UniProtKB/TrEMBL annotation:
One GO cellular component term: cytosol
GO terms for MF: ATP binding; glutamate-tRNA ligase activity
SUPFAM superfamilies reported in the protein's UniProt record: Nucleotidylyl transferase
GO biological process terms, semicolon-separated: glutamyl-tRNA aminoacylation
UniProt domain Glutamyl/glutaminyl-tRNA synthetase class Ib catalytic: residue ranges: 6-283
Pfam families associated with the record: tRNA-synt_1c
Annotated protein name in UniProt: tRNA glutamyl-Q(34) synthetase GluQRS
Family from the record: Belongs to the class-I aminoacyl-tRNA synthetase family.
Keyword line: Aminoacyl-tRNA synthetase, ATP-binding, Ligase, Metal-binding, Nucleotide-binding, Protein biosynthesis, Zinc
Gene3D superfamilies named among the record's database cross-references: HUPs
């Protein structure tokens, strides 16, 4: 038996903060304590926001924390063909459709439905309104298409309820075998206009390609796992075990953001914090 495979998968579009430190340390130490492998993956599909200096800072911050990872690091921007292949599989199953609707057309449609219904349009678990068009009725135009998953058809295709094994906990304490609720997300994007993939698609493809056995990440991604389980089912990929960990909140009880400098690891280091201080600050 080989040991577990864990990964830390930051996006290089800002500085790592205390929440990232907790995630990276948990992954690294779980791998080390179980005699497994620890991988670092750079999730840089957002070509407009990913910046080389942020990627460089990720390496520096992690090394400073005493974390060591396997080389080569997988950079998602170098593997678009893997995600295109997965997208092709979904297309061949007739489960995705082109969407050329602009942000404005989507927002206008939602506003008009809310006005008509006199109540808010349904929101996804992150609080964003669901995509309001049906596969056949979206505006047609010649803008480059994004690709959306036909959620109803995809769930029908799987034909049975999906679940995952959770060894951490969700926002309401969900743990153990958790029932997936992909329908709560509506017709999610599987490929954007600019890149042939999306967060959801590339994360499931990479976790499978890299043989990740345990996904340890922040609780803010708990319900995304529903979409990940669905895509794994459609693409015939194995399901890792999931552990969603507590979030590090700021003094006002809000999630830390990458744009806040005062909790960034580089800023804390420059102010004299040691790796041991960081561990204390994240209560490890
Ligand atoms: N790249 C994602 C982030 O930085 C994390 C993805 C994951 O762990 O599944 O929020």
């Amino acid at each position: 038996m080989t040991g577990p495979v864990l990964r830390f998968a930051p996006s290089p579009n800002g500085r790592l903060h205390l929440g990232h430190a907790l995630s990276a340390l948990l992954n690294f130490e779980m791998a080390r304590d179980a005699g497994g492998r620890f991988l670092l993956r750079i999730e840089d599909i957002d070509v407009g926001r990913a910046r080389p200096e942020f990627e460089q800072a990720i390496y520096e911050d992690l090394a400073w924390l005493g974390i060591a990872w396997e080389e080569p690091v997988r950079r998602q921007s170098e593997h678009f063909s893997d995600y295109e292949a997965a997208l092709k599989t979904l297309k061949a199953q007739g489960l995705v459709y082109r969407s050329v609707a602009t942000r404005k057309e989507i927002a206008d449609e939602i506003a008009s439905r809310e006005a008509k219904d006199g109540k808010p349009w349904p929101r996804d678990p992150d609080g964003a309104p669901l995509y309001p068009f049906e596969p056949g009725d979206a505006p047609a135009g010649d803008a480059p298409p994004a690709w959306r998953l036909d959620m109803r058809a995809a769930i029908d295709r799987i034909g049975q309820p999906l679940s995952w094994q959770e060894t951490g906990a969700g926002p309401d304490g969900e743990t153990g075998e958790v029932a997936a609720r992909p329908q709560a997300w509506g017709d999610v994007l599987v490929a954007r206009k600019e890149v042939p993939t999306s967060y959801h698609l590339s994360v499931v493809v990479d976790d499978a390609l890299e043989g990740v056995t345990h996904v340890v990440r922040g609780r803010d991604l708990f319900w995304s796992t529903s979409v990940h389980r669905l895509l794994q089912g459609l693409l015939g990929l194995p399901a890792p075990v999931y552990r969603h960990h507590r979030l590090i909140l700021d003094d006002d009880g809000r999630k830390l953001s990458k744009s806040r400098r005062d909790t960034s690891l580089s800023e804390l280091r420059a102010a004299g914090a040691t790796p041991a201080d960081i561990r204390r600050m994240v209560r490890l």
